[in-house]
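S., here's the first fold you wanted:
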Amino acid sequence: MEEPILRIDKVRKVYRSGWLKRRETFSLSADLDFQRSRIVGVVGPNGAGKTTLFELITGNNTPTAGRVFVAGRDIHQVKVDERDRLAIHYHQSYQVRRFVTLTPSFMMQAARSDAPIVHLFDEPQFNTQDGYIGFMLAFFRRLRAEGKLIFVSLHPTASYHLEIMREIAEEFIVVSKGRVERRADFAELAADPFVQSYLGPALTERAKALA
């Protein structure tokens, strides 16, 4: 059986604080796989863990438990300078997130890929003028046509953000309260009570109209 493009296998990330009595301050759990090329919308409030999820996928953050496989390769066992040949994280203004590890490179595996397979866009800045949105949507679709898996994370603050997600994403994941869950399409996303609470009344009505 062919390996999925991305497998997030029972991953959990826990943050704790305190010296003598350490307490859990944040945790994120995800157990998902993506078999084929597609564009996935990612939504959730600020601080929900969207960026943490992306960093776990690219190997820039080490999970407390579980493993992440990109094209069958355990991303956290791949040489640091080759991880972006498997998964690449564009943070906001399209700068690439860098990797940190204490494991010597010679003890790690080769990526066995020449170009990124998973592309993660973390709250990209969409310029509403000069056709820029159309350019970016065409770019996402071109990556998909090349067999890539694309994640687009947006924090909707305007109606056009919802329109972008409705137009471009084939499915969605919702990050909330430490959990990562799938939504099959925009209609299911718009009907989610948590998403409605997060969006607020005005954007919820717009989402329902688009659905």
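And the second, which I think is the more interesting of the pair:
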Amino acid sequence: MLRESLATSDSAASIEVQGRCPACGGTETRVLFSATDRLYATTDRIFQIVECRQCGFIRLHPQPEPWQLRDYYPPEYWLMPGITVAERLERWFRRLVLRDHLHFVERALNESEAPGMVLDVGCGDGLFLEMLAERGRINLAGLDFSLDAAIAAWTRAGVPVICGTLSRAPFAPGSCAAVTVFQVLEHLYQPASYLEAARELLAPEGRLIVQVPNVACWQFLLLGEHWNGIDVPRHLLDFRLADLEALLEKCGFEVLRRKHFSLRDNPAGMASSLAPRLDPMARRLRHASETTGMRLWKDVVFLALAVACLPFTLLEAACRAGSTVMVEARRKS
């Protein structure tokens, strides 16, 4: 089993960490391993990845206080600025791989035919909203906790973007045809509050689209603390599909569709796990000293590595063990 393979034989594996499991309320855990910020190097503090002995839910321990957590998100974490050749290449690549998300959301919208707007939660610099607008979607809005990201997204996509949290979003109940929440829930102390807020915002046949890293993937089994999906210390919670579905059901949703592969996240995520120093975003946020030519060369090497990872990530996804999972859900009647 995955959990048994990750548990080590050293003394750290037997340490009992107190604190209730957010999934089942259990109080006993075991330590799988220790890790620090491998990708962005915002801290050298050591954290533990722990597993609930009762239900198997995996999470970060200790969870940083909110004032500490802010320091673990580098400036411009949400943004992709710049107009150099390398930056234009990165933007082109992001647009290419985001089509995967776009098709998933458009299928949900077309099948539901629910009235209302599409709200993208954690919209970052607004690229996904921009692509939706280019395809003729006009009733759009974004939401992000970062003011800089909200401003950039509004400027880029030309749609309203709110700086704030979903649990306090200034939208009318039942006003959304879809709420998209890509790679957000794992960053939250209380993800249920976001899902409950989304349920109130959705029209009766509206759709919730959620994506999270999948801790039950082969990459986590093989790479352990080196898997970028745990993203210590920014990811507070680590979901399996069963954990996500249980949370959705608890918050009043039923799952309609599941997807275990993301062209944007799975191959590139594995490449980042294997070579974090080549990750374009990590290099930018670390303010790596690079000439334009060097940056372009490293981007090309990273892209080649991601392409090389594609067959493995397709295989694990075909076996329902992809490194991300995306679900479409609707309100239970």
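Why I say that: DSSP finds eleven helices and eleven strands in the chain. The chain has a mean pLDDT of 89.

Talk tomorrow,
H.
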